[in-house]
Amino acid sequence: MYPLDENLEIENDVNTEISSRENKAFYFASFVLLLMTVGLVLALLPEDSLLRAPDGTLASFKAPIMQSIVALIFIFTGGVGVVYGVASGKFKLPKDFTKSMEDMTHTLVQLVVFYFFAAQFLYAFNASQIGSLLAVSGAEFLRSLALPPQLTIFGIIFFVALLNLIITSASAKWAILAPIFIPMLMGVGISPELTQASFRISDNAVNVVTPMFAFYPLIITYCQKYVKESGIGTLSSMMLPYTVALLIVLTVVLYGMWFLDIPLGLQADYLYPRP
Q1: Which tens digits make up the pLDDT trace of 217-240?
Q2: Would you call 111 exposed, middle or buried from its count of C-beta atoms within 10 A (0-12, 13-18, 19+)?
Q3: Dihedral sign of CA atoms 211, 217, 219, 224 in order
Q4: pTM value?
Q5: Which residues make beta-bridge pairs with 220?
Q6: Is the C-alpha dihedral spanning 68, 69, 75, 78 positive or negative?
Q7: Which one-letter DSSP state was computed for residue 5?
Q8: CA dist 5 → 111, 188, 228 (Å)
């Protein structure tokens, strides 16, 4: 643990007592979120729902619900925030909405400067293609071992965890590894969904300990609000135990779900071809 700075300045709106109006606004906003969620579920339930794909599935890329997922997240989060702001009295005029967004940008000035220099390094690293070379070489080596499916899944989790130290973009890694891993595991009876799940375990757990993570400067900026000396080494060493623990727990959960045959998601199986 790192001690907080002695001259730490706490903002006026931090750690203040919650008023009864704010408490009621929280419950009201939570109720609105619940209503929105129930409404969405009811809209998805009919087999001929407009939000389903032409074949009636929800998980298909052709389904309108999948194509509008970003807009739905914006409506849900933004709508609930607006409801809370109005109900709590923080938003009284239209300009209060923009004022709240302006206040957030004040904390991002240091981040913008940091990003300028970080972007130069990331561009040079990506242009070298070192990450892609290591990804393809490692995947080919894993395939050449011809391990049993259970050990292959564990090997993918371990390999992606190491690869994530230099390539944090999930889409970039998946674009490189999917053409190798998907056919390889389908050939030994492992479904693409299980391959994707094992990939996501490492991708989620390791991001916070690698300086190559796009949001690393943002995390350091918030750390420096409380400990001025915080840097890359401070954050990496502090979060490493959590990363290892998360990797172990998620791996155990995945194998447990596999053993109990708990579905990974909608129309998702562990075996290929699907029974």
Answers
A1: 778 877 877 777 777 788 888 888
A2: middle
A3: positive
A4: 0.59
A5: none
A6: negative
A7: P
A8: 20, 55, 7
